[in-house]
Design brief:
Length: 571
């Protein structure tokens, strides 16, 4: 985006429509005086380094449906990812991590309600596991493949997985002489074993190990790893109001014991281990810690005694007590250390998040815009491949669909960067004639005026408005009235920016335009209301804005995002 010019020359255009927006509203925008600052820069060329790149995933129709990549593995000279869509279980292949093709639909994948949650190299080549729908609900399911292209739905004899109710397999691992699968059923956890990936046997149910049907004794097992000739599984155990990170241990995959990562009563709230891997002989588990809804990392040398290494804002998430929710969902060991993936919430949306560590003990989140996007992104799994890392998950489309998404970093994504040294920026002060008392910026509510105001995002300066505590709304082009390059009128649909307040049609709307040269950023403000309403998920409220110049001469951005998102011409 060409947003840097907005810091050098800024003009603000403001107008008001305080009446309810139940009908299409036309707003004419007029110019006001401004002041701005500039900075001196020095540029230095560096050596090429790999960067995160969004991969191309073969699209599917309809785009307003649901699909997700849940698991990825390196298999020979290709990557194999698996997940689900409305069609059933889905599989994708990639030879470079940057371009993904969809495996042709086949009867054993096109089982209603089927989903592959995890996948490992075992059995005839690949073993995938998850769940499949049936007349009585969901049941655990296993698929095998010799090449990643053709898949067979396993039918054990006797029918181990065919039981009424809801259940599925969350994760798999291969030990010295058997495979172990862990998963879930109605309010309880479950474990199965197999020697070949085709025939499976359940571990007999025990209420203390796996929980019972009551909410007071709830267990989940989310991942399992082979460790020192045995197995370690991780998850959560809830007794009463508190949930604790919990671990299941076995020397042979048959006999199991459960251990809390912390003694009962030592912690309150909610802690859960989501994934576990091995680094330098130590077990490293990742997950989530509440209150605060922040990532957490645990370590252990034996699976019984655990240390909480890091949690909270160290990982970049501030939780429900601040303004964000973040969680680590998966962790893998790499040649350079360890890597965890998940998501972090900002301004009501989720961005994909990657954390890395050289030793499993000291962690940092990789700051890159490539893992984010227009709406919400979530990362579910990762795999090393071709000297790099592939991560997979989901992305949300503008019309409400959820699509499979993938990213890659490695030698093939290396670029020659430039480093720019810039003098500390000064806040941009905007002073319209009526001396307003409130300020706003991208993705925020208006706030009391300060002199000078803090400049939180250098590429998104504060601008003035007379409206106290109005919220910045999202908007999109109205498909029923597409832009005409020769006209100055822009037809948009306004939607709530964050999940709060009441229906947009019952609230006043104000528009603010930031412009510089041929670039224009359109902000839409919504009148404040009391909390308690639901999210606005419909098509939006129509609004017509006159930009004063032919649209063909302009590039128009939406001001809700940081940095603002280009809307016209359609990228």
């Amino acid at each position: 985006m060409r947003m840097a010019v907005l810091l050098a020359a800024l003009s603000v255009v403001s107008a008001c429509s305080s009446s309810p927006a139940s009908d299409s509203t036309t707003t004419s925008l007029a110019t006001a005086p401004t002041t701005a600052t500039t900075s001196a820069t020095t540029t230095t060329t560096l050596e090429a380094i790999p960067i995160w790149v969004r991969a191309q995933v073969e699209p599917r129709s309809p785009t307003n449906g649901y699909e997700t990549m849940n698991a990825v593995v390196a298999f020979g000279d290709q990557l194999v990812a698996a997940g689900t869509s409305e069609r059933g279980a889905e599989v994708w292949l990639s030879s470079d991590g940057l371009r993904w093709s969809r495996v042709a639909l086949q009867p054993d994948l096109a089982v209603p309600g089927s989903e592959i949650n995890d996948m490992i190299l075992a059995g005839p080549g690949l073993v995938g596991a998850g769940e499949a729908g049936g007349e009585d609900g969901y049941s655990p399911a296993v698929w095998t493949s010799t090449d990643g292209l053709e898949w067979t739905l396993v039918s054990p004899d006797p029918p181990t997985f065919e039981r009424p109710g809801y259940g599925g397999i969350a994760a798999l691992t291969a030990g010295p002489d058997r495979l172990v699968a862990v998963g879930y059923g109605w309010s309880n956890a479950a474990i199965w074993t197999s020697v070949d990936g085709a025939q499976w046997s359940p571990i007999p149910h025990d209420d203390d190990l796996f929980g019972d049907a009551s909410e007071a004794s709830y267990r989940t097992i989310d991942d399992v790893v082979a460790f020192e000739g045995g197995f370690v599984a991780v998850g959560m155990a809830q007794d009463g109001d508190n949930a604790r990170a919990s671990v299941w241990l076995s020397a042979d995959g048959i006999t199991w014991s459960r251990h809390d990562a912390f003694p009962a009563g030592a912690v309150t709230g909610y802690q859960a281990m989501r994934s576990v891997a091995i680094s330098n002989g130590s077990l490293i588990a990742v997950g989530v810690d509440r209150p605060g809804d922040t990532p957490a990392v645990w370590s252990s040398n034996n699976g019984v005694e655990w240390t909480l290494l890091r949690r909270g804002s160290h990982f970049g998430g501030r939780g429900i007590l601040g303004t964000a929710y973040s969680e680590m969902r998966a962790v893998i060991a790499t040649d350079g250390g360890m890597l965890a993936v998940g998501s972090i919430q900002e301004a009501g949306f989720f961005d994909g998040a990657v954390w890395s560590s050289t030793d499993g003990f000291s962690w940092g989140r990789e700051e890159t815009a490539a893992l984010g996007g227009r709406w919400s992104q979530d990362l579910n799994s990762a795999a090393e491949f071709a000297g790099g890392i592939a991560v997979i998950g989901t992305d949300t489309t503008e019309i409400g669909g959820v699509t499979a998404a993938a990213w890659f970093i490695g030698p093939s994504t290396a670029v020659v960067p430039t480093t720019t040294t810039t003098e500390a920026p000064k806040p941009t002060i905007v002073t319209p004639p009526d001396a307003p008392e409130f300020l706003m910026r991208c993705g925020s509510r208006t706030r009391p005026y300060e002199t000078p105001p803090p400049l939180t995002y250098p590429d998104c300066p504060w601008v003035t408005t007379t409206d106290p505590f109005w919220s910045v709304a999202r908007w999109m082009l109205d498909p029923a009235n597409p832009p005409e390059p020769s006209e100055s009128v822009l037809h948009i649909l306004v939607r709530e920016g964050v999940c709060a307040n009441v229906h947009t049609e019952e609230r006043g709307i104000r528009t603010i335009l930031m412009s510089s040269g041929n670039d224009a950023v359109v902000f839409v403000l919504l009148e404040p209301t009391g909390f308690g309403g639901g999210c606005i998920i419909g098509p939006g409220v129509p609004l017509t804005i006159d930009l004063g110049r032919p649209l063909g001469e302009l590039t128009v951005f939406e001001g809700f995002f940081v940095p603002p998102l280009e809307r016209y011409p359609v990228p």
